[in-house]
Protein 1
Amino acid sequence: MAGDINKIDTTRLVGAASEIAQVRKTISSGVDAVNAVFRKMLESNAGESADELGAVAGQLKKSASDILGVMANYENVLKELAGIYDNTEKSTSTEASKLKFGGLR
């Protein structure tokens, strides 16, 4: 049908959101592992070196949080778009079925 040319495959949007979620979880696990390494190093250091390690660990935590937040936003946007497209398609189909064109339906 010619009208299907512009139809969005919302399962791909939801699938992409799911893939991003998995990548986000992997990154989060990696960041947790690196933080554990920093914690061990901090336990065995004191003074200025501990302060520097703490600053690096803090920056990693902030940067990772920012990246993970952006990725979570991408997930949410893709899911939201899928819902909007699905609702629009349903509404359009419902309204189109009400139209009558001189005996044609």
Protein 2
Amino acid sequence: MNQHEIEGRGQTPAKDEPTQPQVKTYDRWQLFYLDRLHRLAGLNKDADAGLLDEDEVRMLRRAIFHTLLDCEYVGVSEEAKTKITVAD
């Protein structure tokens, strides 16, 4: 059925239909690193509250940094930056 036939029947053409929002899908490694970053960002709140000693804070910050690099490597750096920003 062509465009003219659709309009002649009183139906709206496909181009006028609302589109579904695009949902981003992630592979297992992307999810792994994003979940890890989310957990580490939560632990970072403990560090900011003074609940961790100096060595734990240093290890935590290194883990966050390297997880950000991993996120960049697997292609989810923008999502990772959002998680860090939201967690702060």
Protein 3
Amino acid sequence: MSLRTQTSLLAVAAALTLGIPSAWAQVTPKQEDAAQLKADEASLARERAQDAKDVKALKADKAEGKMSAESKDSMRVYRDKQSIRGEKKDMAADRKGSLQGKEDKTELKQDKARLKADAHRQQRDNKHGRMAATSPDAEKVYQDQQAIKGQEKAIAEDKAKLGKE
């Protein structure tokens, strides 16, 4: 068999296997929009399920006192309070007038100033809605809610598009 006949046989085989291009099913824009709407609705259901799961985890973590339910700012304030408590214990154990007692007193003053600054930062971040004032769990819930809003908007657009056609 020559190369020319092999090539033509391959072309015929490909045409028979793949079919004639004009015979392929054509997807209309309306069918495409309907499929997109169905996909968006399925995605919305997944997003709502994930949101419910994250809200449940947030509530459970808060109830158990887990750190994932705490924001960065509240963790700073918590650590500052722990540091102050530790310094006070150290000062109680020190002898009066000792060098160690003086150092502990200085550290206590610094820790109190740090606590005041961190508490102020936490209040400011809460007031302005900054992410540093949001716990990782609460951030997941927020992202889920944003995704749900986006899916609802996409579904509304898809329905409007289908209604026009």
Protein 4
Amino acid sequence: MGRWIAVGKAPGWDDLKRFSTEMKDTSQWRIDPKSTVTSVYALGDGRMIAEYHGPAVTEFEDWLKKKGWSVENVTPIKHIAKTGEIWKVV
């Protein structure tokens, strides 16, 4: 299963109420049984970062379009270090 990060802007998502509406319900981040947007961060400079786990990047790109993101880039994740655990993704 691959992992990707997207960086971009999503109009209105800097507002916590709108951000919550877009992401709170499982159906908003669970694309299908094998594809999930696991994290979305609203940065102080107005940009957003989203992390996706799934079999193909195309599902993530479709989700970003559906959500109205203006995407700067989508890139695969190679390595992860999280709370002391480090692993190679692909």
